[in-house]
Amino acid sequence: MEPALKTRLIGALVLIALAVIIVPMFFSGGSPQTDNGKTLSLALPASPDQELTTRTMSVAPPASSAMPAAASTAAGGDQLATVDIPSRAPQDVHPENDQRPAPMPVQNPPATPPQQSAPTPPAATPPATKPAPKPTAPAPTSAPGQAANGAYTVSLGAYSDTANARSLVERVRKLGYGVKTDKVTIAGKPGARISAGPFSTRAAAETARLRLKQAIPGAPASVVASAHDQSGDAPASALPAGRAGGWAVQIGAYSHQADATALRDKLRKAGFDGYVDDVRSGGRTLWRVRVGPQTQRADAEKIRGDLKSKLKLAGVVVTVP
Question: Which ranges are annotated Pro residues under compositional bias (predicted)?
């Protein structure tokens, strides 16, 4: 038997003996007794004369495993049977299989001197040409008094019979309205178109139309808007004290609305209350530029003087609405 194994067996026996001796000391009553009152002997039996045989069990996987175990049996009685168990640890990678190529040093290409390009000759500059003059739009022309005030009349129709025309004129005059007669041609024969007025406001023209329609049922009556030129200032009698309205200064009347709007903006930038309104005159529409309105005629005259001194613009005093 090997000395190491014998030493282990002896140590185990000593521990068992100590346990048998010391453990009963913790209990009182002396030595344990059997049921018959006999004292048991605690003496250890003598060791057998024959030698002990130790066997080592194989822990290798079954025969079907990929790693078979090689067992060797004991040739003699005092030798142990041993089993060789191959290690399952992964084998080390062979260094020849893990050789990585060393990085190749990067060689910079030799610097080439920059090529000098031949200087380009300066481009010939064309001779300076004078810019063509831009066409300038003709300045809008208008007179301050052109279509200064709107006028309304009541049309009573056209008549080819002279007697009927004269009778209608007399009846209109008896009602206190002014009458205007225009010569026209009806079916190749001379005739007359009769209208009552003029009236300064549409409201006054509508009132006259209703009255004429009631007094002369057979006459067709309709309100017609028109405008007349005013070359000078409106007199103070043009707006009686008992009639609603005011006074304004008209700068001009234009056939294009854009021209009227441009002048209005110029007036506003200069601090004047400019505005634009339209009126029908001679079968076309005119846009009038005015400043105001004012309740007193004297205030309108003062504005006209300021326009003349600041903006060099002439105007006429007209009545509104």
Answer: 102-113, 119-138
| Alpha carbon distance 1, 4 (integer Å) | 9
Total number of domains constituting the chain:
2
Angle at 70 between CA 69 and CA 75, to 5 degrees: 140
One domain, residues 237 and 320: yes
| Phi, then psi, of 42 in degrees rounded to 5 | -100, 15
Q: Is residue 51 part of a domain?
A: no
Q: What is the residue range of 221's domain?
A: 151-227
Structural domain includes residue 305:
yes
* pLDDT digit string, tens, across residues 193-216: 898 888 877 888 899 899 998 888
CA distances from 277 to 148, 200, 238, 289, 300 (A): 11, 16, 20, 7, 18
Task: Determine how many CB atoms are found less than 10 A away from the CB of residue 201.
Answer: 16
Q: What is the pTM of this model?
A: 0.44
The backbone torsions φ and ψ at residue 317, rounded to the nearest 5 degrees and listed phi first, read: -85, 125
